[in-house]
Structure formats: structure tokens, C-alpha cells
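stage 2 :: seqdesign
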């Protein structure tokens, strides 16, 4: 069996982005409380978004299954607050769950975490647990830089992350280290920010004792592991 361990739903139906655009626009109105709202997408729209994209590529390239998660660049944890991120993550994860239910032989779910700058990582544990225990997901994407290119969070080896790691270990799932969009003009999102982040995380792990504290903690560092020689 050939498994693609790193796939994102880059072709999600337009209604998902329409929801996100409205959510962001609503942040400008400070007098209105945030609501989760709904994303109306039919099963046929999901099928249409995949048949000539990911499923076509699976057939052409001979892969059997894709470990599938929401579009990484759209996580944008730097936008809004923890509530904004939670609602956005829940909708994105629920859509991935529907993809996996429609194509159980082709896709397995990995979740987006509702991270937010300055918010303790353990606040994401509830959504991770929901996705693993209720939706059948097998991992998560962990953003080491929720600030979107400004790197205001402590290193991944800092104890600030430990309570989330405890949940990840308890659930026995791996975390893929994956930043999102960059709002820092110095860093092109995929051409610089992604590779820089992978390198940064790799070196953090090499120069600290994190795995002495968590010997069963598992990470995936994508994009070739960054620029570490």
C-alpha cells in the first residue's frame, strides 16, 4: 500500500471560503458576538471537488490512500481570536470528516487545531480529542507559529506546549509540524515561511531534551524537513 501522508483539501467547495470571508468581515464589528454559523455544502459538491483533483491524482500516481487535512495556508491562526479559530477549525474538520465518510478507502482525516496567538496550546486539546474520538482522525497539524510569521510563540520544546503534548500522547496520534499563511512581508508563505518553519522546528528538537520528557511523542516534519543538512 502506498500512503500519501501529507494531503490538504485545497479544492474545497467555494462555500467554505465564503463562510471564512464573512467570518473575517464580521470581526470588524466589535459590537456583534461571534457565532459559529453554518457551511452549506452538499455531498455532490464534495464529490465534484475531488473527482477531477485528488482522486484523479491518486489514480494517475498509484497511491492508495491520502492522509487528508484542511488547507494549511487557510488555517490563518493569526486572524481573530480563539473563538474565531475554534469555529473555523470545527467547520474545516467537519468537512474533512465528510470527505472521509464519502471515500473511506481513499482518505483518512487529520485535523486543524484551533490555535491562536498567545493562547495556551492546551486550549486546542478539546478539538483534537473530538476529531480523534468522534470523527476517527489519526493526527493533527500543529502550527509552531500561530502569529503568522512573527514567531511570538515559545519554541516547540518549551514547557508552554507540554499540556497539549500530554493529550497528543494520551490519544497516541502524531502531529505534523505545519505553519499557515505568513502575514510578515519578509516571508513568502510556501517559498520561505514553510521551509523556514520546518528548519526551525527541526533544530529546536535537535537542541533540546523534549523527547526525554515525551519518549513516545511523534512528529512529522514535512516539505523534506526544511533546510537541515
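stage 2 :: out
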Amino acid at each position: 500500500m502506498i500512503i500519501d501522508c501529507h494531503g490538504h483539501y485545497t479544492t474545497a467547495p467555494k462555500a467554505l471560503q465564503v463562510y471564512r470571508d464573512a467570518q473575517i468581515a464580521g470581526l470588524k464589528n466589535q459590537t456583534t458576538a461571534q457565532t459559529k454559523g453554518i457551511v452549506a455544502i452538499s455531498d455532490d459538491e464534495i464529490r465534484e471537488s475531488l473527482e477531477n483533483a485528488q482522486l484523479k491524482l491518486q489514480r494517475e500516481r498509484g497511491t492508495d490512500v491520502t492522509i487528508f487535512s484542511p488547507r494549511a495556508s487557510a488555517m490563518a491562526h493569526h486572524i481573530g481570536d480563539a473563538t474565531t479559530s475554534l469555529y473555523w477549525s470545527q467547520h474545516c474538520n467537519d468537512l474533512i470528516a465528510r470527505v472521509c465518510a464519502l471515500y473511506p478507502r481513499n482518505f483518512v482525516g487529520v485535523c486543524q487545531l484551533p490555535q491562536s496567538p498567545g493562547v495556551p496550546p492546551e486550549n486546542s486539546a478539546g478539538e483534537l480529542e473530538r476529531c480523534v474520538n468522534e470523527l476517527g482522525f489519526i493526527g493533527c497539524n500543529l502550527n509552531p507559529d500561530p502569529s503568522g510569521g512573527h514567531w511570538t510563540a515559545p519554541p516547540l520544546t518549551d514547557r508552554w506546549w507540554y499540556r497539549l503534548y500530554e493529550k497528543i500522547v494520551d490519544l497516541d496520534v502524531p502531529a505534523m509540524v505545519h505553519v499557515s499563511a505568513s502575514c510578515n512581508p519578509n516571508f513568502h508563505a510556501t517559498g520561505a515561511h514553510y521551509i523556514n518553519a520546518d528548519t526551525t522546528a527541526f533544530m529546536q528538537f535537535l537542541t533540546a531534551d523534549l523527547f526525554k520528557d515525551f519518549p513516545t511523542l511523534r512528529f512529522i516534519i514535512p516539505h523534506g524537513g526544511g533546510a537541515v543538512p
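stage 3 :: structure notes
- The mean pLDDT is 96.
- The first strand starts at residue 3 and ends at 8.
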